[in-house]
Amino acid sequence: MTKALVIFSGGQDSTTCLFWAKKQFREVQAIAFDYGQRHITELSAAQKIADLANVKLSIFKINLLKSVSHNSLTDNSIDVETDQPDHRPPNTLVEGRNMLFLTYAAIFAKANGVKNLITGVGQADYNGYPDCRNDFIVSLNQTLNLSMDFDYQIHTPLMWLDKSEIWQLADELGVFEIVRDMTITCYHGIAGDGCGVCPSCKLRGRGLSNYLKSKNHE
Ligand code: ZN
Question: Does domain 3-216 have CATH number 3.40.50.620?
Fold first, then answer.
């Protein structure tokens, strides 16, 4: 396996995937999307990390997502929910986002002769986002292969890792500090440890303290 394309956002998961990919493949590039997310700081973080990793990053604008649906990640008038009273997904869910991203990434990859696609989705800390599940990825992989008559392989190195194990992987890859300081996971767009109170920061923070605890007990 030689060439790979990482679907990149500048967050903890996709940054870990970027450095994982650099170990696995000879030639790695990254793709990111400006889909009208609340915090465009994500994309500048993505650019800085890609530069540091010496990976070419292509950023594309997808204007439609914001117009066809409403959620708290693209609509500033909707507050980010901290928890849900019922079993529906959180209002940070952008319906169809991963399918669109992977589809655009696949089209771009084929045009560049790249068969390996890497995405940081996972279902260990299942957050109610249906398009983070393995079943979806396996199904889309088959659909993409059929739709473009190309032998794509979607890699999901984080699929079965919880946040603590994702920190461990970053540490094993020698990029713990980069991930901790430079990535943006926070729903309020604050880099590093973030605001500390949004659902995304809480999940990240809990994983980090669990990882540090287990490391100290070794
Ligand atoms: Zn936050």
Answer: yes
88 C-alpha to ligand 1 centroid (Å): 21
Domain boundaries defined on the chain: 3-216
Expressed in angstroms and rounded, the spacing between residue 139 Cα and the centre of ligand 1 is 32
Q: What's the order of all strands across the beta sheet hosting 3-7?
A: 56-61, 27-34, 3-7, 116-118, 153-155
Distance 2 CA to ligand 1 centre (A): 36
CA of 104 to the centre of ligand 1 (A): 28
Pairwise CA distance, residues 179 & 170, whole Å = 7
Q: How far is the CA of 8 from the centre of ligand 1 (A)?
A: 19
Question: What is the spatial distance between Cα 142 and Cα 151, in angstroms, rounded to a whole number?
Answer: 9
Question: Residue 207 carries which side chain, given as an amino acid letter?
Answer: G
Which pTM was predicted?
Answer: 0.89
Model pLDDT for residues 109-164, shown as the tens digit of each residue: 999 999 999 999 999 876 678 899 999 999 999 999 999 999 999 999 999 999 99
